[in-house]
Design brief:
The protein is mostly helical. It has one domain. It contains 21 helices and 3 strands. Strands 1-2-3 form a 3-stranded antiparallel β-sheet. α8 packs across α9.
Amino acid sequence: MLATNEEFSHRSGVRPRTAFLVILALSFLALSCWSFASPLVAGPDEQSHIIRADALAHGQLGHPATPGEQLLVTVTVPQAIYFSKLYPGCWQFLGNNPATCAPSWTTSQAPIATTVYVGHYPPLYYAIVGTGTYFSQQKAGIYAMRLVSSLLSALMLALGAYAIVRWSRRKMIVAGVFMALTPMSLFLSSVVNPSGFEIVSAICLWTALAIFVMDYPIDPPRGLVTVIAVSASVFALIRGLSPLWVGLAGIVAIMAVGWREIWALLRRRHDVRVAVGVIGAAFVVALTWITTQGTLHILPVGVPVPKGSSELHIIRMTLGALKRWRRESIGVLGWLDTGLPNFLYSVWYLMIVGAFIGGLWRSSWRQRLALILASGLALFMPVVIVAREARVNGIVWQGRDSLPITVGAIILAVALCANLIRSARLERWGVSCIVVVVALLNLIAFYANLRRYAVGRMGGRLFFLHNVGWSPPTGQFATLFVYGVLTAVITALVLRWVWVGSVATPTTSQGD
């Protein structure tokens, strides 16, 4: 007997399609607030991403600036787009400098040739986001690109919400998704940078995989298989290391379920074989671009490694950066010039460590090994990648680069905590506490980010009451107020579902 949407809605208190649409709308609006709360080019490398997206959307693939090399690519864009290279000069990297010092944005449409260092990156994200410049190739068009980027991330969050409401038997996974949505994840999703879309796509994929591993390891629903295939395929096409992260996510899932069970599932289910084929095709496309375009070649801008350094010394240097990368994963915003209150990091670390311990407590040995593997990969894979290329590029990495695997370890750990909780009421309280705490921390981060650009990190705390300093197009107070309202609404809706709905127990694994 198939479990219908109506039957599931009675158990969970909300229809899956309704959850998809509501989360899509609310998360898009929330990310849009982030888009306006930071001046243009406040995102890392945003000027290069802006120029690449505009050029690609208007038919320019670009050509190597120097014959024989692909790292720097020359394109021609309007001066109003090129101006993104000049705009942030007086406040970039200077956290105490508000954005009021920036010059007025030029409106000139005169063409100008310039180089970008992301011209060899996979084109999918840029081709979509660049459509924002069809609206305008001036300042408004760049904001439009930010909004398109926010919409892409909102779609992935909505797809993850659909999977939870439709198939998950454990509400703890909701808390895992909230914990994975760190301020860095939200900030990057709101600017022109493929890193944000990659992180949120990873959250969607890991959410679907966690549901599969914990609730349907033998016979997953067709719809869940489709969500895994779509999110994994899109994820693999976003950035140069994306296929690696997708592959590692698959290995963790296979470890949690077992090779024999996965092989039996492949032999038994045609839709699973199709899903694997779709993901494989996406991998072929991604790897073809990456290898032929030299995507993994980067500017050697990392901390230099002293000549004659041994491999052990390089590894020690790389391990020394782990603390900084961990902090950046939570949120060092802007061009790594906008730190957040120290207590925010401490609370997040405490939640993550608690989730890891709880996830190991009563889980099966396979689940424990999967969690240990995911956590170990999140912690040490960057060390391996960076140390391997350190002599050429220096110690170059940021916390955001490993978030696609880090969010997986967080989601899996929190989901496994459901094995520790025997009372449905206790599970509801646990989810509610995490959701409320994360919502408040993200609201504090949003305020800190807006304050940094309005009056500087050390500026007046109540700047928004007097409209002091730099102001977003939507206004200081209005932007902060709307984001606060959206945070409250999202939190209230999630808490209502957690407390009103019951845990899902689908009558069949074949329901869509």
